[in-house]
Amino acid sequence: MKFEYFNDTGREIDIHPATREHGTECDMSPIKHLEVRTFYLPDGTYPWVKMWDYGEGRGLSILVSPREENE
Fold first, then answer.
1. Where on the tree of life does the source sit, at the highest rank (predicted)?
2. Rg (CA), the chain
3. Which residues contact 6 (CB under 8 A, 6 or more apart)?
4. How many domains does the chain have?
5. Opening angle at CA 10, ends 59 and 22, nearest 5
6. 58, 1 Cβ separation under 8 angstroms
7. Could you count the other beta carbons within 10 Å of the beta carbon of residue 13?
8. Structural domain of 40
9. Residue 24's closest CA among 15, 33, 32?
10. Which of 68, 70, 52 is nearest to 9 (CA)?
11. What is d(CA 58, CA 3) in angstroms, rounded to the nearest whole number?
């Protein structure tokens, strides 16, 4: 499955390392403001998304993890 995320936060977003560890393929570089990032998940899954805000100067982080369709 392909999942696209559009960054309209006004800040860069780091991608949590567990995104790749959980089986999602993507460019792991930070997502710049107004950039669209494509995440590729294994077949038969959907994206579960979590974002953390560590505050100004510390940044944002996003996790995109595949979940089984029957969960």
1. Bacteria
2. 12
3. 34, 35, 36
4. 1
5. 50
6. no
7. 21
8. 2-68
9. 15
10. 52
11. 26
